[in-house]
Amino acid sequence: MFSKACEYGIKASIYISHQSQKGERVSLVAIAKAIDSPLAFTAKILQSLAKNNIIVSSKGSTGGYEIPKDMQAKIMLFHIVEAIDGDKIYNGCGLGLPQCNERKPCPIHFQFKAIRDDLKVMLKTTAIEELANGLHKGIAFLKR
């Protein structure tokens, strides 16, 4: 459903949030390893997340990536998806037909629209902090 870049972006944001809750900044290498993502691809994703004010990048010997604690409850999954994939996930046809719309629907248009609408609500109401807390409590994981 999400692009690979978006999947990695969500995982990276959760990992960075989790580490930030412990007062730690994390390096590009540590993030790529934690989410099992190629280094160069991870760098590009992190650059997009930083550009969209989802994560903070600091340079230097004590640098790395973080999400300030006061921002974690405000950053929703929606922001990450929008920063990486845009809004195409909310508008595309379930069968990939370019001409599908309300007036000329494909066979699954209305069922798929309901699922897309539910997904949008979930993404807009799920904070990165909540997901990072799942890692902290040991009830969620990022890798096998």
TrEMBL record:
PANTHER family listed in its UniProt record: TRANSCRIPTIONAL REGULATOR-RELATED, WINGED HELIX-TURN-HELIX TRANSCRIPTIONAL REGULATOR, RRF2 FAMILY
GO cellular component: cytosol
Protein name: Transcriptional regulator
Record-linked InterPro entries: Tscrpt_reg_Rrf2 (IPR000944), WH-like_DNA-bd_sf (IPR036388), WH_DNA-bd_sf (IPR036390)
Entry-linked SUPFAM superfamilies: Winged helix' DNA-binding domain
MF (Gene Ontology): DNA-binding transcription factor activity
Domain of life: Bacteria
